[in-house]
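Please check this:
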Amino acid sequence: MPRPQLLLFDLGGVLVENVGFERLNDLLPVRMNNDQIKNKWLASPAVRAFELGVISPEVFAQRFLEEWQISLDASEFLTAFSSWPTGFYAGAGELLAGLGRRYRLACLSNSNALHWQKFDGFREHFHLSLSSHLLGVIKPDPGCFARAIQACGLPAETIAFFDDSLANVASAGKLGLQAFHVCGLEELEQALHPIGVL
């Protein structure tokens, strides 16, 4: 395994704290466990369409509330939804600043117009910022990773990818990326040591 030339990060759950599933569970008519809610989210037609950039926030809210049987006003839901990503985990900015002096850094996120706007300030930490709603492709679809590899302009095997979704990690690995499953900053730092990055 060659030493990485570029580090490619998912945002939510790796560098960015997202309280979305917890807040969403509070809105549901029947609560779900973490795996159930995550699986339903990943399979949601409304979420997928919004994170592919093919529907507006307003249409997303209407479809999502109906799909999940949530009794909430659409504008009220969008206000709450916008607040779910709360910001970098403590220490994430400093970690990226240090890594950025020695490596090219990029992010690849399943995101949407509302959350990406909130992430504007984060993009100063990356040489390249990629989001599903701008690419028109979404993780874990292989096409999303193919587009990311192309945008990075490097052989896949020289890119180390970090994500909190096992499905995304598996898909990235099939395309030749050095793919690591990490949840949160502590696990990310632990994964960086064996590959000689930290």
The first strand starts at residue 6 and ends at 9. The longest helix spans residues 57-67. The domain at 20-83 is CATH 1.10.150 (DNA polymerase; domain 1). The two ends are 16 Å apart (CA to CA).
